[in-house]
Structures
1.
Amino acid sequence: MFSYRHAFHAGNHADVLKHAVLLHILDYYNRKDAPYWVIDTHAGAGVYDLTDAWAEKTAEFRDGIERLWHLPQLPALLADYIDHVRQLNDQGGLSVYPGSPWIALQLMRPADRLRLFELHPTEITHLDENIQMQSRDVARQVSVFEKDGFTGLLSQLPPAPRRGIILIDPSYEDKNDYRHTLTAVREGLKKFATGCFAVWYPLVRRKEVHDMQKQLEKISDASWVHVRLAVKRPPENGYGLYGSAMFVVNPPYTLVSALREAMPILEKQLAQDDQAQFSLTHQDK
């Protein structure tokens, strides 16, 4: 279970979709003065050096964020995402990539709080180090738990301010993660019905993915948005990532229109063959 290292995949097409959506949600929550919590069930290391051996081994960022890096006049959802990543990089180059904890930390206000779960022993060591690099006041906003996020999530719900964003993004290397994700959303909504639950999952040729896609859209009577991006045709041998998806319960009302504008650009720019495509469905309540 400890074989997965996100540094191999930092900044790839899946990160582009996940983090662009997350940034939009955070920006929306910042429109109100009321504080909120962000809870990340599978936090990773927080920040990734794209020049180190882990990232260079696969260099997946070259078919992800790098393809958008110098494009002019991007839609707002993508322009905000690129601008945020630029803030961590000097002199216009792309050498550092922020994970979801870092994105949340940079956008949160003093009264907001960040709760991070990470079980991988190497990842949590780097996560702790990266958090400690922040100022004392910022670090006090963050709680890091060396614990399985699926089991730890419910202990944090509902958040004290009754406003919160929950990001659920396991590696799905273990096929049980699909079942655990559905359970986490179902049980989480029972304790925090108004929470914004953002689920990332990979597009791979597994029965569990097909089943989860159907179950997610039946999981709640609340509003939801479901966006999927395939960057290439599914592999004939049945193995390998060919895209990813985000399912957001209780999304900002602005998310659908932002995705309608951004997804055709992502389909075109991140395509790895002529079978790239996206889908966008939603339920309004």
2.
Amino acid sequence: MSVATDTSFTHFTRTAERAANQVISAYSTSFGLACRLLGSRHRQHVRNIYALVRVADELVDGVTAEAGLSYQEQCDALTHFIDETHRAVKLGYSSDLIIHAFAQTARTAGIDHSLIDPFFDSMRMDLGERTDFPERNAAPASLRFDADAHDGYVHGSAEVVGLMCLRVFMRDENIDDADAIALEHGASRLGAAFQNINFLRDLADDTTRLGRSYLGTSDHLEDRDRMEWVSTIRAQLADANAVIPMLPRDARAAVRSALALFQALTDRIEQTTVDELYRHRVRVPDTVKAGLAARAVASTWMELHR
């Protein structure tokens, strides 16, 4: 009896997916937990998206600088990463395992330039490569994003990532235009909420290590600014929560779990002064995360069995 074996391409792709999974386990316990709640047809695809996003984010957030690359070499490294991603999505292959895994997901779910390009535009902004900046040979000493720059950055760095995941979830679904618009709005709002919460959580690191201010304020955030952002985030989370019942059944518990975690983080940020935010990162204990995930699963089960 002959035993079927994987083709070389399938074996390579599975290896790439394992590499993507390692990125998640190394960088985000919260995201890893939410992914485990996804149905099997979505889980690996979302992990592949996260891995590419995380590697690109690390590239612009100091890894290349700590490796000794000059500012121009950092920019060149990002350009190479972008070009290789586009090439892999077009051809269906990359020798870079993380990019290869993402390309398989992009081709399966219809993730195209309309979502990929804005993401990389935001990564360029992190390096100070905005088109309205003069060409320079050294990294800017600091970056401050005004309201328009903030909105553009959030769209590229977070909203389109939510839309990428939505394309994974909805790739086998037939929905009308009105439902598609509602779901896209909810996915964008959830991505924006996640990013704005992380801006508040990362105030200390962004300002002291990276010299960046994403929230369109003066040099130092005030408590009234913090409360305005908390209000904005709550509205974004509410919009996202409203469309969860429209998602496929095997995606709802995971999205609910992630949303619940960020609601908990928002509660903690609301109770934390700005001075404290500048000193340490707000976190939710692992035991609380587990409880939130369990409640998300139970809520989804009850929704489906009414």
3.
Amino acid sequence: MKLLLSGRALTASAVAVATLVTGGSAAGAATAPTRPAAAAAPDIPIANVKAHLSQLQSIATANGGNRAHGRAGYQASLTYVKAKLDAAGFTTRVQQFTASGRTGYNLIADWPGGDADQIVMAGSHLDSVTSGPGINDNGSGSSAVLETALAVARSGYQPTKHLRFAWWGAEELGLVGSRYYVNSLGSAERAKISGYLNFDMIGSPNPGYFVYDDDPTIEKTFKDYFAGLGVSTEIETEGDGRSDHAPFKNAGVPVGGLFSGADYRKTSAQAAKWGGTVGQPFDRCYHSSCDTTANINDTALDRNSDAIAYAVWTLSQ
């Protein structure tokens, strides 16, 4: 998640887009065909999500301790995610832009099939800040979105709507990659996106359970999931407008998402609901070198990963 600093508008000189191709009930009446029962979302294996986090940590460790825009660690992170998706049968493309004098990349992955005029999109930013490996911010969202996409492939899921997944570059410089993507779409293409779901920091070590209150249908979908677990949620305010849903929202696309908290401090009322430590940040390692694989709450990561899959399945049927 990008820092909220007044006057911090970083200009992104976005240049070229490089796309890598890759009946009746009377007796005796004919029985009307019945619509197949809605597919149930799978449980997302937390071990798989954590395995992706371990890979991102290794990538950061081998590349100066970070996975930041324009650095070797970001490129290696994108290569890792893209290889997993390609092997699973997704159609992937890489979109190139320039920000702060360095080349950045977005990764877009489409699951074949579904109504191309109704697209459900889930995304997360893949870059870290330069000061750390960015495992909660935002390896957590990136890994959970990746594993949800891989679960789509494993299950052979064929939804009514078209599914698209995305990993954004240069979010930490001011939502550069996601804004570039949205601006690259014509109005007709933007109108085909029936919902964009954003996941930025979902494994915070002193977690809260926050739901974006933008699109009512998407919001209710997430709230219903957590209600089924007996977990209370709150409306997300700390990161409002500070992550990659903002360019979509500004373009009129319905948006929603989940968040487990950054540098705001947990209140006594929140600790009573969720456990954890009163008066401490949700993530004490936010934008720091200690944002490593040790900086993850497994329960929050597991619940939020399953909530992603639930929303993807529910909203795409």
